[in-house]
Amino acid sequence: MKTISAACLLTLVLTSPLAAQTRRPRPPSPPPPPLPSYPAFAPRAFVEISEQQFAAKETFKSVFGESAGPFRGGGVDLVLNRNLFVEISASQYKKTGQRLFRSEGKDYRLGIPLSVKVTPIELIGGYRLRLRRWPRVIPYAGIGFGSFKYEETSQFNTDEENVDVKKKGLVLVGGAEFRVFRWVGVSLDAHYSHVSDIIGIGGISQEFKEDDLGGTAARFRVIIGR
Amino acid sequence: MFRSRIRVVTSSFVLVVGLVVLGRGQGLQSGRLALPLNLPAVDTGVSPDQAPAPRTLTTRSLRSVAGDTLYADRSGSSGVTYRPGRVIVKFRDTASASTRVSAMSTVSRTATMTARPSYADFDVIELDPSENPEAAAREFAARADVEYAQAAYREHAYFRPNDPNYNLQWNMPAIDMERAWDIQPGANPSVIVAVVDTGIAYLSTIIRLNARAFRLLFSNGTSLNYPALGLIDVPFGAAPDLTGPDRFVKPHDFIWDDETPVDFVGHGTHVSGTIGQLTNNNLGTAGIAYNVRLMPVKVIDDLWDFIFGALNEATDDIVARGIRYAADNGAKVINLSIGRAGPPAAPVVEDAIRYAVSKGAFVAIAAGNDFEDGNPLQAVAEIASRVAGAVSVGATDILHNRAFYSSTGSWVELSAPGGSSRGFGATGTVYQQTYNFNFTDTFDPSPATYRAPRFDIFAIQPLQGTSMATPHVSGLAALLIQQGITDPAAIEAAMEKFAIDRGTPGRDSSFGFGEISARNTLRGLGLSK
Predict the structure, then answer these.
(1) Residues of chain A with pLDDT under 50
(2) Do A203 and B487 touch (CB under 8 A)?
(3) Is there a contact between B338 and B313 (Cβ–Cβ < 8 Å)?
(4) pLDDT band at B79; cut points 50, 70, 90
(5) CB contact under 8 A, B484 and A108
(6) In sequence order, what are the beta bridge partners of A74?
(7) Distance of alpha carbon B528 from alpha carbon B310, whole angstroms
(8) Could you read off the pLDDT of B465-500 as tens digits, one per residue?
(9) Which residues pair with B81 in a beta bridge?
(10) For labelling, which of A109, B297, B334, B340 has a CA lying 20 to 30 Å from the CA of A196?
(11) C-alpha span between B47 and B131 (Å, rounded)
């Protein structure tokens, strides 16, 4: 981190006077450093935390009082030939709210605890860019699918009234990884998921006509491996 | 709206005709005087000539013995309640004693095992109550020497009241009341339900009244003359299964223009029982919202009111004043098991209902009992269909069919058990505590046996009618208010949404949106189901 900061500062110091000396020919920029060597086949592990804005905003807000929530999890990925990657991850969102009734735009919370667990297992493949100028920064983008397990229980429920279903959904991801050390990196990305056929067919989600259990998330990862 | 007691339904009609012919003002001066005497009411149990033989309760509520718990129950992540400080573990048969001790010490330093209980192939491990038994159970379960482990989750019977005559009340399970009580056990006294009716047996006293002579005319042209009894001291009792400390609030009598709305016929008392009969008290029957406070508002007169020379009769203006009184004095639910056929309309009543709803009171109105009498429009019930926050209630029988008498029409919005003796006898009617009619209907069957009435002797009586259906809705409304749905329009919307569709699919003129489902309504909606 210090190295990057120093490099940025140095770049600013050097480029400002140059901008004023327009008549002087620009010296040729130094050649970018060569990319560090990288194995053709690099397995890595990561832990992640994300904050997801659920697509079913009104539904989650009514039940839990907020339309966003954290997922925590981890996984492994495999970088192939420096640029391609494939990853598998699992995470979980867990929250307890209340059952409710909605009438004329007003929610009446009934004081009956309702707990929800969303557990996605995602398989994503994608492409990583290697920038010669900023070798520690690796932008990436990927697409894949997830198996989303959704569990909903409430006090007073019978077994038949509890929900435990699994559906597949689309996943898109894009962001950048920053190599902190040779074996440690962090990444920050935007994650989009779309999961239908779990909500929107009953309960308050049907009232809101919201049928997507996915959403948009900001994910932060700590990666162990090259 | 009466369907009254099944054995006198015809003669009541004749009596009313007689009253109209006789008019008022005959005999001695009207008025009444409460004497400073207070005698206990007498409970004679189930009305012996109509009720089926009592059956033995096979299930009793566990709620009444739940007080032996050392620590308050807690809820786990699943929402299921468990007993703190206890884990149930089944070790594999191959696990030695030392392995078991080792397992316990690994999971928790506070874990101790008591002697294996009888009839168990598992062990019960005690932990410090502050520890999480679900987490401990997971740790045990993960071990190779453990077959299963779980927290000691609370089991309970669906709340079934221990009232000895509860077994007569098919109407409670019919709307899933037992499971509803698990969610919301009887509301609390902050919820006031006004019973705008014939009064309530809420007071133990003796009232000196002047019983005038009167004549009954029968439809076949004959008549019976009843002599004046003169000034008599009439005993009144508070219904034993209805009365508790601070149970009644702001009583008012618009028939006698005073603050003593005692019941001369037993209708309002029976209706009040369905709403709020004391429950799980080892006495009589159960009521739906058994912890609420009741507001007796008398707006309906009957034969004894006439004989004793009441000042007013049940007219639209009296009913309207009663509704407004209830709303102004804090009622959150107003039960109107009353009504009349129409047209003409009753704008004074409609204004009063709209006023009550605007003050935050939910209003339940009987849909009428005139299906077999030409099925006329019901002037009061019909108002409900135009007011969000007021509902008209039809009656269902023990098989969830429309009761034979229950009026039909576009104004019917909901239905609830009103009972039906047709095909089912008294078993198919609605039982609650009210007067023992042997002591109140002393004009029946003839002047030879006519004597002063007593309103202090009670029995569990089988009645039927949309009058009996309506208090189911009022009781449920009280529970919903306690549960958090306070707006009258929202209460109506909730009941209609969760009603169980009966008859023709969708809303129909017999059941409205369907028969109320107490448990479903109180439970509301989850996220996805």
Answers:
(1) 1-22
(2) no
(3) no
(4) low
(5) yes
(6) A47, A90
(7) 58
(8) 999 999 999 999 999 999 999 999 999 999 999 999
(9) B75
(10) A109
(11) 55
Q: Is B75 on the interface with A (CB under 8 A)?
A: yes
- Nearest Cα residue in chain A from B482: A110
Question: What's the pLDDT at B489?
Answer: 98
Residues 6 or more apart whose Cβ sits within 8 Å of residue A18: A26
Phi, psi for A100 (deg, rounded to 5): -155, 170
Give the tokens for residue B225.
């003359």
Token couple for A204: 């308050």
Q: What tokens appear for B283 in the block?
A: 């006495």
Rounded to an integer, the average pLDDT of B108-132 is 87
DSSP percent split of chain A into helix, strand, coil, nearest 5: 15, 55, 30
Is-contact B290 B297, C-beta < 8 A?
no
Q: With CA atoms as reference, report the closest residue to B226 among B307, B138, B342, B123.
A: B307
- The neighbouring-strand residues paired with A44 are A77
Is pLDDT at B294 greater than 60 in this prediction?
yes
Which residues partner with A184 through β-bridges? A224
Q: Which residues of A touch B487 (CB under 8 A)?
A: 103-104, 106, 108
Contact yes or no for A113 and B493 at CB 8 A: no
From the CA atom positions of chain A, what is the Rg in Å? 23
- How far, in Å, CA of A23 to CA of B286, rounded? 99
Which segments of B154-212 are extended strands (E)?
A: 192-197, 205-211
Number of inter-chain CB pairs under 8 A, A vs B: 106
Cα gap B59→B80, rounded to integer Å: 23
A50 strand-pairing partners? A71, A219
Which one has a higher pLDDT value, B28 or B423? Answer: B423
Cα end-to-end span (Å), chain A: 17
Q: Compute how many other C-beta atoms are within 10 angstroms of the C-beta atom of residue B117.
A: 9
Residue A83: how many other CB atoms lie within 10 Å = 14
**Both structure tokens of B277:** 């009969």
| pLDDT-based confidence at residue B423 (cuts at 50, 70, 90) | very high
Residues of A with CB under 8 A from a CB of B: 59-60, 63, 94, 96-97, 99-104, 106, 108-116, 150, 152-157, 161, 163, 198-205, 207
Cβ neighbours of B11 (radius 10 Å) = 16
Q: Indicate the residue of A110, A156, A204 with minimum beta-carbon distance to B484.
A: A110
Token reading at B108: 């928790």
Contact A113 B485 (CB under 8 A): no
pTM: 0.79
> Nearest-CA distance from A151 to chain B in Å?
10
Q: Which of B517, B462, B479, B57 is nearest to B280 (CA)?
A: B57
Please give, rounded to a whole number of angstroms, the shortest distance from the CA of B157 to a CA of chain A.
12
Give bridge partners of residue A42 from the DSSP assignment.
Answer: A79
Contact B278, B272 (CB under 8 A): no
Distance from CA of A187 to the nearest CA of B (A): 32
| pLDDT value at residue B153 | 82
* DSSP annotation string for B379-416: TTHHHHTTSTTEEEEEEE-TTSSBPTT---STT--EEE
Residues of B in contact with A199 (CB under 8 A): 527-528
In B403-456 the beta strands, taken as DSSP E runs, fall at 414-417, 430-435
Chain B residue closest in CA terms to A105: B490
